[in-house]
Each structure stands twice: as structure tokens, then as C-alpha cells.
Amino acid sequence: MSRFMIRAVFFRRYTAATVGKPFRNVAEVKQYLAKQTWSIDEILHGEDTGKAAKQGVPTEEEVRKLLALCAFPVEDADLQNSKRILVKQLSFINKLHETSVDDQDKNLDENYARLLPRQNKALTYDDLLKKIDGIKQDEATGEPTGSWDSTGLAKMRKDNYFIVRQGLLKNRK
């Protein structure tokens, strides 16, 4: 029995996971716990949802156009659910835009702050084409294979702008 307990203690000792730097004293723990944090519920269900609703909930026609633009099925779509999801996404984006992180960036150690680099190289048109070629459409999200070619209508390039002269103007008044 005691041999089993020793194995259990030994096993637990070497399987512990750590995240970030360890705390060195109680003051660091108190300082860490005193920092203001966000709750996802506050962000998505707080006052910002009301702001997004005041800014304008997308109409059913706008939701249909967005679904068609994304090549999702429009006929069998749950428009009310899509509207609710759009309002949540808009409120989350608004919250991110309102948050100032400039003061915090000075003290951040990038090794513990982000998984992606902060400064990224600008993409060129050729880089975008390579990335697009590698994208696989997901049938689970309703994307039919080969439904939309994002660069197929761009026939001309001038001053880093891509000119589309056909296809998109069919249903305009």
C-alpha cells in the first residue's frame, strides 16, 4: 500500500503543467489577482449588446445578402439566429476597439503575451493568391466546394488596386 502511494506522489510530481512564469512571493500573487480582468459574459451580454442594438440590428435582407456573399445557403438559413450572432460579434468587435492597450504594451514580454508576432510583413497580391490556393472549404459550415473564386473577377491591377468590371453589378438598381 505504501509503495502505491509513493508511486502516485512521484507520478504527480513529474506530470504537473505550468503556464507562464512562476510567482516568487505572496505579493506577486496579490498583485496578479488585483488586476482587472474581463468576463466573456460581460463582453457579449453586457451594455455593449445594447449599444449594438441601438446602432442597428441588421435587417433580414442584409442578413440574406451577407449569407449569399459568404456563399452560405440562404433558403434554409435561420435568420433570427444569424441576426443574434451578428449583434454579438459586432458588440465584441466594438469592445475590442474601445480597449486601449498602448499603456500595457510597454511592459509586456512578448514571449508570454501572444502566440502570433506583433509586427507582420505586409501581404502582396501573390502572397494572397498562394494563401487562397491553400484554403479548403468546410462543408460543415455550408460552404459548397468551388462556390466562389475570390480573385476570379479581378481582371486588372493598377496602383495596388484590383479592378472588377463584371459580375458584381448584376443586381444593382
Question: Could you name the key traits of this structure?
Answer:
173 residues; mainly alpha; two-stranded antiparallel sheet; 9 helices
Explain briefly what this protein structure is.
The chain is mostly helical.
Question: How does this structure look, described?
Answer:
It holds the Pfam family GatF. Belongs to the GatF family. Residues 1-15 form a transit peptide. This protein is mainly alpha-helical and 173 residues long. The protein folds into 2 domains: 22-119, no CATH class; 121-173, no CATH class. 49% of the residues lie in helices and 5% in strands. The protein has helices spanning 2-14, 26-34, 40-45, 47-55, 60-69, 79-98, 102-105, 110-113, 125-134, and strands at 154-158, 161-164. A two-stranded antiparallel sheet has the order 1-2. A hairpin with a 2-residue loop joins strand 1 and strand 2 (161-164). The longest helix is centred in the middle third of the chain and has 20 residues, at 79-98. The protein is extended and about 65 Å long. The model has no long low-confidence stretch (mean pLDDT 72).
